[in-house]
Amino acid sequence: MTDRRLHLNAFLMPIGHHEAAWRLPESDPNANLDIQHYISLARTAERGRFDSVFLADSPVLFANPERRPSGKLEPTIILTAIATATERIGLIGTASTTYNEPYNLARRFASLDFVSGGRAGWNIVTTAGDDAARNFGLDGVPAHKSRYARAAEFVEVSTKLWDSWEDDAIVADKEAAIHADSAKVHTFEHEGEFFSVAGPLNVPRSPQGYPLLVQAGSSENGKDFAALYAEAIFTAQPTFEEGKAFYDDVKDRVGKVGRDPRQVLILPGIVPVIGDTEKEARELDAELARLISPEYARRQLAERFGLRPEQLPLDEPLPENLPSEDEIEGAKSRYTLIVQLARRENLTVRQLIERLGGGRGHRTFAGTAEQVADTIEHWFHSGAADGFNIMPAVLPSGLEKFVDGVVPILQERGLFRTEYTEATLRGHYGLPRPENQFTVGRAFVGLATQP
Amino acid sequence: MTDRRLHLNAFLMPIGHHEAAWRLPESDPNANLDIQHYISLARTAERGRFDSVFLADSPVLFANPERRPSGKLEPTIILTAIATATERIGLIGTASTTYNEPYNLARRFASLDFVSGGRAGWNIVTTAGDDAARNFGLDGVPAHKSRYARAAEFVEVSTKLWDSWEDDAIVADKEAAIHADSAKVHTFEHEGEFFSVAGPLNVPRSPQGYPLLVQAGSSENGKDFAALYAEAIFTAQPTFEEGKAFYDDVKDRVGKVGRDPRQVLILPGIVPVIGDTEKEARELDAELARLISPEYARRQLAERFGLRPEQLPLDEPLPENLPSEDEIEGAKSRYTLIVQLARRENLTVRQLIERLGGGRGHRTFAGTAEQVADTIEHWFHSGAADGFNIMPAVLPSGLEKFVDGVVPILQERGLFRTEYTEATLRGHYGLPRPENQFTVGRAFVGLATQP
Ligand SMILES: Cc1cc2nc3c(=O)[nH]c(=O)nc-3n(C[C@H](O)[C@H](O)[C@H](O)COP(=O)(O)O)c2cc1C
Ligand SMILES: Cc1cc2nc3c(=O)[nH]c(=O)nc-3n(C[C@H](O)[C@H](O)[C@H](O)COP(=O)(O)O)c2cc1C
Q1: Could you give the ipTM of this predicted complex?
Q2: Which of B97, B118, B259, B421 could potentially form a cystine with B154 if both were Cys, beta carbons 3.0 to 4.6 Å apart?
Q3: Is the distance from the beta carbon of residue B97 to the nearest atom of ligand 2 less than 6 Å?
């Protein structure tokens, strides 16, 4: 275990993960549209030797634009701009398998991998919500199970596209007038339930072979999908016990499908609110809670539960008879997490909203840099995490405090790199470059073991 | 006419427009995958005060990868990287209306417009060819007319998405906890033949309102589409007479639908092969012709005609009984141009291949910088062009020769800017920022006049 290394990902919610962060005096309320803001955040994370930065996404105007900055530039565009302004840090972007075509998306990630010299990662999501569906010709969101089935086929087709050029296909022989060996460029004519795609891709195999495959849904379907395809997993785990149980469950599933559990990294989220003293941290936390608009937050909560806002009186606990996870076709695992959190801690709707306003169900932690480092070390050493998804409540200040305060402590304790030793995102995470299925005659390990 | 200004766009075919350019000793045969190569080309064009750079595209591996570098990074990714490394030059990328969804594409161009500070342009194409269709679940390419009908609805939906946030929707009032005025953020619920899209876009209105709308198909359907929607038109015109006729025809169509013909700029392509002397230029041209592989080129030509390669003997003229344009469902206008060129000049297949190898039907011109400037001035002053699409046969050298040789002559003659005077792509082309249809209560002029 001594050479086991901690991994850190910076989850860049533009103005911070706390929904009221934009209202602080220090915040630029339009930073979400400012590419220099993202570049500067990524440079801070790179200074802290983070493995990667990460952008969430969905193809819909989430939330009420009245309530918080809701405009989102498209992640592969932001990450390309970051790529040109950084050297080493990995670049993970979210894209939906429900509302994209494999040819276009696989190509975009291969392009980003070229532009960044092997630093691209794809957070594979299935996109909950009827509103997104209505931007793509549908009346409502397809069933959860069907979304995950499409996601599986989407990844399978994508790996065929990324492998469609073998690594040594390009010969570039000017004399012989041969640019590529066309026997090593494969038309594969995939025909499946959701897609028929002939190939080859119009981009040769990229530096990493595939972008790093990341997954972030924690329902049963989500965990099964992750066991087969994911190389890194983002997850919301509000307590150590839940985090440990999730970790063991997923590693077990990974082993059961015949993959090496060490090659699937589990990164729970943490929302650190850092102060020079614990008191200072708690004050910032309280200030943020005060800035939440409970009416807006309640409306969003009600939507998640399929209720009207009036059905959730602010100073009462959640109603008794909420639907079970089975009845939810949106984001299943987050729904359950929220209901359990409220029940366990006996929270009123108002208190629940304050808890969610910070981390939306992720572990929030107000304290000193030392205390944050202790929590991280505890989870890491007790087998509840391979690393963390750092979700600063306020940006850029929260990330700066983490990089200047927490990272040096983790480095001193020998838990975290002091310099980059690798050039690619897969390299940072200690993951191999995938073999080419057309060269070796068998598919990506996740696909090869698909039941 | 004195303040009429010439416009220049640099069409960046990675290693040059001549299909054998990669075989020259000076060429890097893998520059098509090297983002620094594109950045350096764009900086050269910016040094020459070009209005814009342009990238062609289609979502398929075109041509035989054996024959020439055929890998293509995705244009909005390349243009984003260029945006971060340049200040003023416009960035025009091609994207297909047949193989994209409006929500995703409109968002990507809006994002590029933000990242570049108002320099994005979209070359709207319908994508010919069965091979592309087979990457998107279809057996063959949809009919030409139907592709253009989808393109029209695609643009209409896109303008609704780009307008879905009014320009003053964002108030960012921290005190009142109001980020945007939600009465100015519009759900529009478009329901049409091809798309149903609810909106709003998840990106506020971008610096230019819309990206510059560019079009590049010259069939009857293509010209009608351009008259309604295009603000700039790329076109292949091999002779002055054809160029003049096209120019008059399109401006006439623009006027007929009630738009101002001065606000639709026509940019024919020119492939300049520039030498210090005419002799040197002709020698480079001949060297390039010698490097073409006629077998590969013939295969591609045969495909365009729906024939087998053996049906096109290299040293005979084209067969008599070729299909008419009506029977072609692919790229109609380019097909007709090629057949007419061969017939008019009585070319054998081998000679035709040499002619097309350079410019694929665009006007090629081997000569001195002075001679190139003369041609440009002639077309511009005789009302056959509002500017030119500069398509260097070899890159980067061909663009450098143009910028260092031709541009100063055009500037001396008072035809071309010596400094940028505007910050946006629309500004460079002298085109207005479109009004917002939800603010003014009527659609984009092209859409408003749709029959
Ligand atoms: C850190 C983290 C980031 C996530 N980012 C996204 C995202 O960007 N887009 C998205 O649609 N879902 C995202 N999700 C997943 C959703 O929260 C939700 O879990 C998912 O849509 C449905 O998965 P499930 O039903 O399997 O739980 C993320 C989850 C986590 C833990
Ligand atoms: C300068 C220029 C650039 C073009 N670029 C593209 C392109 O990138 N992708 C594409 O599918 N068609 C492109 N076209 C259009 C095709 O050549 C062809 O004309 C079009 O696919 C079909 O249009 P038509 O049938 O209306 O002639 C371009 C045309 C010109 C003149």
Answers
A1: 0.94
A2: B97
A3: no
